[in-house]
Structures are given as structure tokens and as C-alpha cells.
Amino acid sequence: MKVGDQTSFALMVMPDIMFPEKISVGRNSVVGYNTTILAHEYLIKEYRIGKVIIGDEVLIGANTTILPGVTVGDHAIVSAGTLVHKDVPAGSFVGGNPMRLIYTKEEMDKRNQEDM
């Protein structure tokens, strides 16, 4: 598994134990409590194996599950309890089960400027 500088994993984070080499997490990211990062998924009649790429300065909320083959873009925020089953655009805010886009990068930038 590749982990960037200044990245932190909270208690009980479970990276894939069979294919940890397929997981990479960028620098200065936070992976929340009890998150599961899967690089493989075995079903009854099929299976998936895929890289999981988590970018730089990403926040993954607690109790999130990330499925194989997913990329989480730089500066993205994933709300607690989210099932990440598809790519997360850079700078966006996503959440839910199933995951949905809550704010795009542009909407997040606008909200952050209004807070100043």
C-alpha cells in the first residue's frame, strides 16, 4: 500500500488485506474511523479486482466503504457513512448510500468564499 506524507488513518480503518498493493492514498489526507477500503470484491458468480486511488488532501468520513476500481480526486470530501461505488470528482463533496454528488468543486469554492 502506498501512503503519502502527513496522511492519517483513524482507529479501525481496514484496508484490503488480500491486495493492499492496489491501494494508494495521497499526501495530507484523512481516512476516518472504521472505514473499509476494498481492492477486491467476490460475488457468487463474478468478482472484481481494481485499484483504489485516493488523492491528495482528501477527507474520508467515518464508517465509509470504498469499493474496488474507484478514484477519489484531490481535495474531495466524502461524508461519513458513504458507499463509494464510483469515482469522486476532484474538489467535490459526496455522500450517501448510494453515493451522490452533493456539491461540485465550483459550488464548494463558492461556498468557501462566502464563508470568508
What does this structure look like?
With 116 residues, the chain is mainly β. It has a single domain, classed as Hexapeptide repeat proteins (UDP N-Acetylglucosamine Acyltransferase, domain 1). It is 9% helix and 34% strand. The protein is built from 1 helix and 16 strands. The protein has one helix spanning 105-114; strands at residues 2-3, 8-9, 14-15, 23-25, 30-31, 36-37, 40-42, 47-49, 52-54, 59-60, 65-66, 71-72, 77-78, 83-84, 93-95, 100-103. Strands 2-5-10-13-15-16 form a 6-stranded mixed β-sheet. It has a 4-stranded parallel β-sheet with strand order 1-4-9-12, with no helix packed on it. The protein has a 4-stranded parallel β-sheet with strand order 3-6-11-14, with no helix packed on it. The protein is globular and about 50 Å long. The termini are far apart. The mean pLDDT is 96.
